[in-house]
Amino acid sequence: MDAAATRAPDPPGRGGTPHRLLALAMDPTRRTPVDKPEFCVHSGTMAHLNFDQAIIKIRATDSRFAPAAYHFIRQSLDHSIARFNRHGPEKKPAHVSGKELLEGFRDLALKEYGPMAKTVLGEWGIFRCSHVGEIVFQLVQFGILGKSETDKPDDFQEIWTFIEAFESPFQPKPQSLKKRSVSWRSPSPKKGSPRRRPKSKNNLGKL
Question: Does 104 reside within a domain?
Fold first, then answer.
């Protein structure tokens, strides 16, 4: 996916408290985790639309994803470009692959939302890797993002589940317990102490 490299990527860490994150997800009219970005559109048929207008157009026919989901995907693209050093030449868009964008998406979600990442993404309607690809190509269709001839939705196949990506890192790792064989041994008599002779059955003593 392509994006303009003229603007520095938004810094991570705008997630806020968990309650605020869920409020942002459920109420898109409040400030989203990403400020309104400016884009250099080099493909698409509706380049006159700004980002928020494009989201409105998209959601008019497909409302599965919250507006905050589109903003976060755009921020994930910036994060991926910076992480994988994919800045293009001057006045040319940068490019990352679908797999790289997914890795940047996961990395940024964990940094911003920590253990709440899966919950917040779910509130936005994002439950699997293919949803990220669907959002990306919706933005491509409306001219917000560009793509190369080799980019395709299949690039966003399920390389990991959301449980693996956002829950497993916070689960305690089981420690390998070594089985210890415990054998019982009768205590050895102390040195110098007289040994007791076993009583004979025929010598029970006199009454």
Answer: yes
